[in-house]
Structures are given as structure tokens and as C-alpha cells.
Amino acid sequence: MTILGVLQNRGEIMKKICKKWMMVLIIFTILFVIGAAITSAQPYSTFVGKVVAIQRGAVSVEGVKGEVLQFAVGRNTVYIPPRLLGIGEWVRVEYRFDGRRNVGYQMKIIQPPPPKKK
């Protein structure tokens, strides 16, 4: 084999390796973009109701229609005004569902809704 033949053979091998790496890079990029779209920030949901129970790390709120949701709370939960909640207070909760539970991010104390006229 001549030196020219060896160099041509190496060039073909390098082209094959470059093509494989380009395919891997393209697949990785596509998966990265899809993953970023899936994990993009979800919008907050809002729930309005009356506080019915307070436990360590959780607050239960009964909605206007009677449904009760429990929200995980912690150091990152913002209370407006900046004080702890009391049983019977009306709140507007901004929360996200993280796959296991509702995580309360903001709890704003509000005025109770006006009673319904019959």
C-alpha cells in the first residue's frame, strides 16, 4: 500500500466518524429542545376560598363551591399581608401542581365574598 492509499483510507474513516458525531449532535439537540419545551414554566393557577385547616407545611382551603384543596407551604410561600393565616380567613392562593401536590406560592388574604341573595 502506498502512502497516498493510506491517507485516502484515513480520510474516508474520518468522514464516517464525522457523520456519526453529527447525527449524535443533531439527536441530542432535538431531545434538548423537546425537554426544554416540556419543562417550561407552567402558569400559576388561582383558587379562592376559606382556610379550614392549618398543619405544619400545609394549608387546607375550602372553595366557594365546597371543594377542599390542600396546599403545601414553606419558606418560599409569600403571604400578603406578611403574617400567618388564621382559620376562617378568605384567601386567594396562587399555586402550581408539581406532579404530586399543589404547592402554594402566594396566599393573599381577601375580603369574603358578599352573601348570595335568595
What would you say this structure looks like, in words?
The termini are far apart. 31% of the residues lie in helices and 36% in strands. It folds into 2 domains: 1-40; 45-110, OB fold (Dihydrolipoamide Acetyltransferase, E2P), CATH 2.40.50.320. By secondary structure, it is of the alpha/beta class. A hairpin with a 4-residue loop joins strand 5 (90-97) and strand 6 (102-110). The protein has one helix at residues 3-38; strands at residues 45-55, 58-63, 68-72, 78-80, 90-97, 102-110. The mean pLDDT is 85.
* Adjacency order of strands in the biggest sheet: 1-2-3-6-5
Task: Please describe the biggest sheet, giving its number of strands, its sense, and whether it closes into a barrel.
Answer: 5 strands, mixed, barrel
Task: Provide the succession of SSEs.
Answer: HEEEEEE
Could you name the ranges where pLDDT drops below 50 across 5 or more consecutive residues?
none
Overall mean confidence score, pLDDT: 85
What share of residues are in beta strands?
35-45%
Number of domains: 2
- Give helix % range: 25-40%
Summarize the structure.
The chain is of the alpha/beta class. It folds into two domains: 40 residues; 66 residues, OB fold (Dihydrolipoamide Acetyltransferase, E2P), CATH 2.40.50.320.
Features:
2 domains; OB fold (Dihydrolipoamide Acetyltransferase, E2P); five-stranded mixed barrel
List the helices and strands and how they pair.
Layout: H1 3-38, E1 45-55, E2 58-63, E3 68-72, E4 78-80, E5 90-97, E6 102-110
Parallel strand pairs: 3-6, 4-6
Antiparallel strand pairs: 1-2, 1-5, 2-3, 5-6
